[in-house]
Amino acid sequence: MTAIRPLIIFIILFQLFMATTTSAESITSLNLPLLGEAQAMTAQGQLIPTSTVFTGGISVNGTAYQPEVTQTLADAVRIEGNMQIDPTHVNQLADLLVYAKLEASTTANLNSPFYQLDVQDNISLWDQQPANLVAFRQNVILSAQQSVSLYSGTFYFPGLLNIFFGYRLQDGTFVTNHKGMMVTISSKSVSSRFTAAPCPFPIPDGSTLIEGTDFSCGYATVPEQHADPEGPQIRLAVAIFQSPNDQPKSDPLIMEQGGPGGSTLETFATSLLEPEDTLVRPLLQRQDIVLIEQRGTLYSEPYLFCEEVKQFQLDLFKRWMFLTNEEIGQRADQALIDCRDRFLNEGINLSAYNSVENAADIAMVVHALGYSQFNYYGVSYGTMLGQHLMRDHRQQLRSVILDSVVPLETSFIPLTANTIDRSFKLLFAKCAADSTCTRQYPNLEQVFFDTVESLNASPTVISPKDFAGNTYVLPLVGDDVMGQIATLLYSTPLIPFLPAIIYQIADADYTVNTLLFEEMVFNDTSADGMFNSVICAEEANYTDADYHTEGLYPPVVEMANRQDIRETCALWPVNRLEAYVNEPVSSQLPTLILSGEFDPVTPPSFGQTVAQHLPYGYAYTFPGVGHGVIGGGECPQSMMLAFLNSPFLAPPEDCIAKMEIKFADGSESDLLDGTRIKPESNFILEGRPLFF
């Protein structure tokens, strides 16, 4: 028999790792193609020599940058340029310029109109006079390498678009790329096909909402890759909940769950169908709510759930005492490889399951349902998805709510220890400052880490049951306890009970540990294959240098370091997306940004980071709240409703000052009956600990 190891944490961390984002790379690192010689002329139109060199390209749906591309109207494009400035122009004041020639067909037409792009991204006709070309960016001091992000989004008209950029000095000297970037936009754009169907999720007894009257469901068919509209197709489950308002607004609220890989329908439809729901139903009063099951998740087809990994876990629960750590690692890797190979043999393109394609799905399905504009709510990974929508499909958006925010530009996995450490210290400080808490649970910090150390030295066992009633005897070590308490910091209703729970574990009562293990590990509603594809395509390019753990609790650092996704990604080969997916999103869209004070995975500072680039971004932190502010009570609910009604006005925030945490004294009879640890009560647990 081998030494007892932190088995629960191993299984949890192997199954679903914490998601991340990476720091933005400069445009000069994008390997942009050379666009040839520059052309320069004086204010009087006389051609003059210049040594400025232009590079640039167009990325379609996250693919590599090319100087010439062909796409459909449905595709999301990103256009970037860079100028190696003529040394005689460096440090001079200039306006940056962007313009394009649109031809109605692929046949060149000298009379085709030219368009210009101004500082507000507005498009207007240009008379081809350099002096009349409006500035895309005004009064820029030219550097030796000058980057220009030209455009991000979709196009509206078919034809041939020839795109140019450059700069104009104060003396009128005009420098531009002689050879434009060429995009052929095909009118042969695919549209999503929506087919009505019975709702795939269970409808609870006693629900006051009736299928076919108050809500309906169906499936939307979309391309597996939007750049290949005639290629393989996938199906996304959709649920439409109709507003009870006699005159609902025409712009629906699209709500999306986190993960990546969490089920939107399992989370929000389940909540809406509860007779006494206060989580989502208040938002239904203004407009319809549309739930789109993301690609690869529970009720969509295919469902990227690794049965092989689940079977490995169940086998491990029976044989853990006979296996070495090396043998466990080998079997875990093989289970992941077997799952990957099964998906590939089924013809699934794992590289198609990323945030760019995911965002394109939502925009396409909303259009197929007949809505011209929509509001968006996303929680956790759903906030990343929301930022991709803001970048690539902003024309369809009316407003955005980002709940428990993940900045696209932040390297997240290396910050795991930092964010958990912050939440632990906040919990201990809040208890110490509360007379009731410190009287009943003195020295909470010391008791907690003494318990962790004691159980690491002398593990105990727990006996969880799976949903079929099978019982397992498993080790519980201190690292498991630490991970589970960090998990419970997600859930706003459970935070007041954490001091009592810590003391109960210290007194050798492991009921909560057993209940939590059952809900987290035996839950099969989250798509781990989808998680792997998204994270490995977008977020796994961090390095050891990105870790900064000075001043953190050493046990927290050791636990968090096990959540390194890079080994998994080595076995889950998907194409990395272009670096722009990790750049901050700048947008004029009104955006409500919600953060929970205790959130152990997306701290309030993340919300402030995103807000910096949003002129109409309103960021708030809610006391006593964990991950998923929508579950924080009446205050965030009322602010969301006010924002949806008037998104360009900051919502009234007086209620935030009245929010505070009131620690429980441990006498509540339902503390250990399991009802407070059910995913339907604490939806943001998402069937997983520590993750989005």
Question: How would you describe the overall organization of this protein?
Answer:
The protein has 692 residues and is of the alpha+beta class. Among the domains are: 31-186, Coagulation Factor XIII, Chain A, domain 1 (Distorted Sandwich); 234-410 and 582-685, 3-Layer(aba) Sandwich (Rossmann fold). Helices cover 27% and strands 22% of the residues. Strands 1, 2, 3, 4, 5, 6, 7, 8, 9, 10, 11, 12 and 13 form a 13-stranded mixed sheet that branches. The protein has a 9-stranded mixed sheet with strand order 14-15-16-18-17-19-20-23-24, with helices on both faces. The chain has a two-stranded antiparallel ribbon with strand order 21-22. Helix 5 (355-368) crosses helix 6 (381-392), helix 7 packs antiparallel against helix 14 (554-560) and helix 9 crosses helix 11 (498-506). The longest helix has 21 residues, at 325-345. Residues 10-29, 105-110 and 678-692 have low confidence and may be disordered.
Please name the defining characteristics of this protein:
nine-stranded mixed β-sheet, Rossmann fold, alpha+beta, disordered C terminus, 13-stranded mixed β-sheet, 692 residues, Coagulation Factor XIII, Chain A, domain 1, single chain
Cα-to-Cα separation, first versus last residue: 36 Å
How much helix, percentage-wise, in residues? Answer: 25-40%
- What structural class is derived from the secondary structure elements? alpha+beta
The CATH superfamily of the domain at 234-410 and 582-685 turns out to be Alpha/Beta hydrolase fold, catalytic domain
Say what the CATH topology of the domain at 234-410 and 582-685 is.
Answer: Rossmann fold
Subunit arrangement of the protein: single chain
What percent of residues are in strands? 15-25%
Number of helices: 17
Cα gyration radius (Å): 27 Å
How would you state the average pLDDT, rounded?
A: 88
* Sheet having the most strands: 13 strands, mixed
Got a strand count? 24
Which runs of at least 5 residues are low in confidence (pLDDT < 50)? 10-29, 105-110, 678-692
CATH class of the domain at 234-410 and 582-685: Alpha Beta
User: Would you identify the CATH architecture of the domain at 234-410 and 582-685?
Assistant: 3-Layer(aba) Sandwich
Name the overall outline.
globular
